[in-house]
């Protein structure tokens, strides 16, 4: 991201530690709140950012009495560091007026969108490589903002991981195997329960002539899933194992091109590394997988109270079965219970889906029915997995349902979605709190077996005081990881003082 000597204008880097250059010269921004302010403005470069959004990002829930006046003072200080005309005042907010391509996060998004529309697989790969090269570390490193950390950082990280997965898929399809095994091994170490990466590793090993290592990799995965989740690998992984065992090609012959108006989106956010239990729910989801493209699309409604892990279950399972849906996976957060914003309108949600399906450069109907009709036309005849997270109610979901078989829809919601079950044939899957055994297993995975075994009574007390809720337990576990010197007995007595996110966090 660092510009050369001939660069002009304001450049902002947020895909790593915040970095700012003006006409090729680094500009230090020491104030934490100015760093947050600039990062938020940069994400929406060229577009107005309202006072409320800026205040939420800068101060969170502890906003000053006159937040607008405080923002004006901070903007004045930021203007003193930068050219005055680069931050413009608009009604109810501000605009950062630099070229959008000079903000690394914006350029990253542009490159990924262009890669999805690329007709040639080599062009697509080149764009993905360029996009991934923009990353210098964790997004917004050194910028303190709960909003950026909880909303924008996960969104960018999810897109980065999806881009990396697609680049690996292309490398495997085109036999670019140099250094690939070592790269994928790092992914399996970082995301040990993400089966897709194990499939990548088995394929790369097979292509490298290491058939025995590929088969041993499958056995490692088999033992891991059995010990951690009590399940066996998904059907696509079992089929890959069979092909390698029989000496068959690990995948079909590579293709040299993609249809530019028919991308295969892969929008699933990352799954959690510490997913445990839920064997029964995973088995039920497996049983709902559509056998073929005939009949009506399958819809599953995962419901339950806040904190039970609905999103974690849906995303984890979706990653296990991506091979069953070769035409892609869509993911939309409908924000039905998000306290920081309003629920997504169905028309807006469909627009997100249309953009992912290749309609981004083209006009789409404004009318909801016409827009839904176009969406159903594009997914007709495809085998796609559609994950709609945090639905407010059945009315928000109904326009998003595809019209023909082949697709599978997974919806999560705190609402019971009675209308979706009664009138649209959705299969209900109500998620309860964790069992005591699952809760203890979660803490064991997060904290280590030795630490948990050393204080079993404290662990049981933490489990019960957290109500066996996934979000609360994860919050306590995160606190314990950050403070390894604190005994679990002490932590158990102060569970109520640990910020667990039970009131505001998503189910993840």
UniProtKB/TrEMBL annotation:
Originating organism: Actinoplanes aureus
Membership in a protein family: Belongs to the AfsR/DnrI/RedD regulatory family.
Superkingdom, natural source: Bacteria
One Pfam family in the UniProt entry: NB-ARC
Keyword Oxidoreductase tagged: no
Keywords from the UniProt entry: DNA-binding, Transcription, Transcription regulation
Region: Disordered, residue numbers: 246-270
Gene Ontology annotations of biological process type: phosphorelay signal transduction system; regulation of DNA-templated transcription
GO MF annotation: an example: DNA binding
Name used for this protein in its record: Winged helix-turn-helix domain-containing protein
Signal peptide: none
Lineage: Bacteria, Bacillati, Actinomycetota, Actinomycetes, Micromonosporales
InterPro entries recorded: AfsR-DnrI-RedD_regulator, BTAD, NB-ARC, OmpR/PhoB-type_DNA-bd, P-loop_NTPase, Sig_transdc_resp-reg_C-effctor, TPR-like_helical_dom_sf, WH-like_DNA-bd_sf
PROSITE patterns referenced in this protein's UniProt entry, alphabetically: OMPR_PHOB
Residues annotated as domain OmpR/PhoB-type: 1-98
DNA-binding region(s) from the entry: 1-98
């Amino acid at each position: 991201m660092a510009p050369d000597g001939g660069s002009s204008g304001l450049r902002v880097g947020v895909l790593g530690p915040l970095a700012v250059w003006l006409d090729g010269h680094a500009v230090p921004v020491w104030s934490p709140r100015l760093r947050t302010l600039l990062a938020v403005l940069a994400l929406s470069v060229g577009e107005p950012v309202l006072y409320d959004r800026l205040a939420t990002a800068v101060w969170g829930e502890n906003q000053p009495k006159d937040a607008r006046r405080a923002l004006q003072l901070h903007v004045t200080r930021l203007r003193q560091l930068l050219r005055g005309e680069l931050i413009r005042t608009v009604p109810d907010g501000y605009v950062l007026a630099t070229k959008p391509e000079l903000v690394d996060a914006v350029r990253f998004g542009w490159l990924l969108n262009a890669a999805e529309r690329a007709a040639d697989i080599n062009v697509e790969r080149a764009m993905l490589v360029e996009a991934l090269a923009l990353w210098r570390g964790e997004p917004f490193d050194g910028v303190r903002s709960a909003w950026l950390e909880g909303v924008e950082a996960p969104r960018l990280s999810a897109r980065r991981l999806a881009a990396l997965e697609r680049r690996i898929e292309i490398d495997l399809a085109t036999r670019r195997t140099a250094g690939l095994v070592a790269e994928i091994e790092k992914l399996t170490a970082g995301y040990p329960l993400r089966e897709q990466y194990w499939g990548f590793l088995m394929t790369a090993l097979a292509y490298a002539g290491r058939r025995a290592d590929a088969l041993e990799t499958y056995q490692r995965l088999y033992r891991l899933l059995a010990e951690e989740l009590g399940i066996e690998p998904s059907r696509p992984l079992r089929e890959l194992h069979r092909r390698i065992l029989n000496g068959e090609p690990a995948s079909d012959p590579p293709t040299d091109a993609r249809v530019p108006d028919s991308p295969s989106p892969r929008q699933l956010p990352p799954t959690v590394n510490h997913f445990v239990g839920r064997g029964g729910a995973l088995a039920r989801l497996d049983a709902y997988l559509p056998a073929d493209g005939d009949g009506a699309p399958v819809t599953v409604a995962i419901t339950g109270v806040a904190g039970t892990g609905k999103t974690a279950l849906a995303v984890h399972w979706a990653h296990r079965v991506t091979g069953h849906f070769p035409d892609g996976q869509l993911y939309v957060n409908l924000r039905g219970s998000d306290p920081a914003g309003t629920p997504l309108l169905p028309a807006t949600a469909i627009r997100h889906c249309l953009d992912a399906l290749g309609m981004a450069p083209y006009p789409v109907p404004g009318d909801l029915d016409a827009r839904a009709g176009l969406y159903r036309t594009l997914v007709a005849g495809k085998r796609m997995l559609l994950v709609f997270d945090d639905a407010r109610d059945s009315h928000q979901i109904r326009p998003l349902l595809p019209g023909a078989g082949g697709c599978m829809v997974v919806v999560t919601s705190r609402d019971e979605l009675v209308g979706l079950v009664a009138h649209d044939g959705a299969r209900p899957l109500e998620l309860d709190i964790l069992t005591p055994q699952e809760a203890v297993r979660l803490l064991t995975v997060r904290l280590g077996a030795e630490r948990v075994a050393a204080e079993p009574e404290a662990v049981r007390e933490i489990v019960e005081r957290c109500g066996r809720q996934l979000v609360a337990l994860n919050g306590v576990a995160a606190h314990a990881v950050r403070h390894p010197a604190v005994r679990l007995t002490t932590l158990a007595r102060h569970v109520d003082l640990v910020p667990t996110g039970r009131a505001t966090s998503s189910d993840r």
